[in-house]
Amino acid sequence: MALSAGMVTALAAQEALVFVAVEIVLPGPVNIRLLDGPGSLTFSSKTFTGRDATYGVLAGVEALREEIGLEAPRLRLGVNPPSSSAVSTLMAEANQGSAISLWLGCVTRSTGAVVASPELLFTGFYDTAKTVAYQNILGVEIDVASDWERMFTAEEGARLNTSWHQSIYAGELGLDFVIDSLAEPFWGSKEPGETGTAGAVVPFGVGEIWGAPPPPPPMGA
């Protein structure tokens, strides 16, 4: 991750405090903007606070790793709401797909001003959530899927039947009479190779095991 020149300079001089900011945009719209500590900061025309009067505080954010993998990155964050109604709002089914963003920034110790522009580390969408209880506190953990996740759902709902085929190629009737196909299509992977041993085909009924050599002739034959 490449930080801005202003942040690199401030961190090198040890004159800055690092912060994490999270924005959760729920239907309504409900904009929840939280910091990982006390206070209030404004950047990009958005104000983030350490405690939201309705939805509580940011309990934690799962550590992010910069790596190359075969799966889209994911993020988990926790919120400690102050009321059961806030828990219900955060757990609502309609939240799925809502935008969630995370920034890393720093402020100058002497002035409290945000240094340069905070780095947008993660953008994704609300996937699932669950309630957790610890130390007499009821919290909500939100699992956030990266925007890259949508690349893997491009074929979601695709079917090998005439209605789906015609939704793409209108009037093309090639699958109209395919009602009992025994061939299994291999989608997204190579066709498995043939198995078995090489050799001549042995008719059924010869030997006790399919493919076994015929028994020897009787003595004296």
Q: Give the DSSP E fraction (strand runs of 2 or more residues).
A: 25-35%
Helix content: 10-25%
Strand order of the largest sheet: 2-1-8-9-10-7-6-5
Give the rounded overall mean pLDDT: 78
* Biggest sheet features: 8 strands, antiparallel
User: How many E-type strands?
Assistant: 10
Order of helices and strands: HEEEEEEEHEEEH
Radius of gyration equals 30 Å
Low-confidence stretches: 195-211
Give the helix/strand class: mainly beta
The termini sit apart by: 84 Å
What's the number of helices?
3
General form: elongated
Structure description:
The chain has 221 residues and is mostly beta strands. The chain has a domain at 5-153. Helix content is 10%, strand content 34%. The protein has helices at residues 5-12, 84-91, 162-168, and strands at residues 16-26, 30-35, 40-43, 46-49, 51-52, 56-61, 74-80, 99-108, 119-134, 137-146. The strands form two sheets. It has an eight-stranded antiparallel β-sheet with strand order 2-1-8-9-10-7-6-5. The longest helix has 8 residues, at 5-12.
